[in-house]
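Hello forum,

I keep getting stuck at the same step: I have a sequence, I want structure tokens, and every attempt I make locally crashes halfway through. Rather than fight my setup again tonight, could one of you with a working pipeline run this one for me? It's a single chain of 699 residues.
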Amino acid sequence: MSMSLADARYFLNRMVGLFHRSLASLRTRGWRATWQRIRVHTQTLPPPRRAPLYLPAAEPFAPFTLPASAAPVVSIVIPVYNQAAHTLACLRALAAHPPQVPCEILVVDDGSSDQTATWMPQVQGLRYVVRERNGGFIEACNDGVARSLGRYVVLLNNDTVPQPGWLDALLATFTAVPRAGLVGAQLLYPDGRLQEAGGVVFQDGSGWSYGRFESAEDPRYSALRDADYCSGAALMIPRALWDTLGGFDTRYRPAYYEDTDLAFAVRAAGYRVLVQPASRVVHDEGTSNGTDTGSGVKAYQVRNQGVFADKWAQALRAQPPVGSVPSPALLHRHQRQVLILDEAVPQPDRDSGSLRQYNLIRMLVYGDAHVVFVPTRREHAGAATEALQQLGVEVWHAPFLQGIGPWLREHGPRFAVVMMVRHHVASECLPLLRSYAPQARTVFDTVDLHYLRERRGAELAGNAGLLRDAERTRARELAVMAATDVTVLVSAAEREQLRIDAPGVTVELISNLHEVAAGGEDWAHRHDLVFVGGFRHPPNVDAMQWFIGEVFARIRAQLPEVRFHCIGADVPDALRALAATQPGVEIHGFVPVVTPYMDQVRIAVAPLRFGAGVKGKVNLSMAHGQPVVATTCAVEGMHLQDGQDVLVADDAEAFAAAVVRLYQDPVLWQQLSSAGRRNVADHFSLDAARDTVQRVFLG
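Reply #2:
Ran it on my machine without issues. Output:
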């Protein structure tokens, strides 16, 4: 198949798929919701916007105050030699947007002859150190770190303007990333262009500033990433590690290659060198020493390349050859690269499918895979996109992602595994993958068996049109399974269904992925009932219409003080209207953090009358020790037994009676609480899925 034909088939499949899904949506969601879904798929996406750079106004000197702590966690060491105006701008930025963590700021004066000695003593909170004689950048840094008190040290050039949150982002990396040893900031030019997102070192010791002059928002440079080195203009390192390594190697005096050498030493000691794009620092490159390597201090850059190459000759053999052009494929060449294609970036605070996908991505990252996420809708999802980038995931979006076909044509050859999420995404993308990534193992993640869910909904509604839609979905879903290498299911019940419907398909089970939470309140300190679920999912709408309309009044008749908390995004107006007629029902809509409702509400309800897959709402509650009353459909394939792990009821009278019984029985409540937590640990935890994830993606 030619490249142009593959692109054409992708476009055609995408349009046909959107048409079929729109017809089904009209039947289940109505025309307003359907039109909104079509608009999301077809609208022109604006480029994402980062906060504008903070650049202090050039004003005459006046005394001001810096953040200071007698017991700092972080020491910021700023070596200076003249350039007092730059030092002043740097310090003003630190004063205007102080870090959240306790810190101290040291200015190490290496023999300045300008206003530095006049201004610095007037800055309250600053530790101003004047060296006895000029020794150059390396000696000034080593001297300053030796005088510092913090557990972590930041080396910061005086010709920088740190942006709000820069230091806290650097520090958070050490908590988030095991074996982090050195973390550098994303360096920007004053006009906002990227100066460096970590450095690349070639086999001869020469370097490349990755991303120079490009957009700082480009997906290649926006994710946390291992780097060969990070510029000494803005980097953080634990003080203990600095001392162990002996600081900057003085053989590079007065300057240049000391930061590259330090990075190689950190890595040789078994730690990681990372660039953190969430930490932004404007750097007026070349202020102190210019950019001409033929004269002045800058000439030491040429000499020190030879010193560095001799010292690290063995390590340099593993570096890219001179003349290579750095790219994601090159920089992640030693990792297994995994591509995930889905409509949109997962938002784990909004739905259980997103939480499962987010935790799967975490497992892949922790397994040392390089994960690339491409949303076919091409949109930047704000905080959700940034959360993946902070894991180290390369997330593409408009305007940098022009189209799926052109992107795969360029990037497809680097992937060992490609996972497509949901059958319509897989149908659209499979022709492209055959052309542009034929070497990749193809994995189809169903999320749930759509045709099974649709069929059950049609049967409940008695709608022949919906039943025909479900059969068409079945044909498309099974066709995708036949065309891919591995189909991933979420429940053992669905696996049994496929043994009947598609016995030749290779199936793996990766269910919902949860972490068992710390225990919440005990029975006596908990009150009320809760449901959590997004309302773009038709089974959740039906469940709440039934529970609020037919079940809750029966519960309230026996428990008159009990309230019901309904949580989830995109609540339909009809459901709000129904809730308004029922005393005790509180519709909360989207709640960013649901943990308090898991830890303080006595019982969760899962009154689903149709659906498929494994129900994240049940897992979520049980992971927090919150017992659940559910329908048979809601606990299908979840290894739960009525009366031992959960209470199960399917008609309104029995469901209400089960809720009242559990609400009033602390012994039964505790039994179900403990059993539910064990169930999550045994079947729905990251540990439970580890072997399967290894086999499907990393083996």
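The longest helix spans residues 3-29. If your local run keeps crashing, start a new thread with the error log.
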